[in-house]
Write a structure and sequence with these properties.
- With 67 residues, this protein is of the alpha+beta class.
- Strands 1-3-2 form a three-stranded antiparallel β-sheet.
- The protein starts with a strand and ends with a helix.
Length: 67
Amino acid sequence: MEKSVKIRLIFSHGDVNRPFVHHYVSVFGLTFSILQADITPDIGGRIVLDLMGEEENIEEALKYTIE
């Protein structure tokens, strides 16, 4: 079943280079909208996304995110 969830990611300086959004698309088959973003390389930041896709794929993507 198709689902949409809004998530907020808060990055520390070490997480800025992790390819979260790339994996959401290529590995989990999700689409997304960036609702808000404030990211500075080597410092950190935050991003608010609206993720859309199959419910099970969203759940797997969220598990990946917190690893």
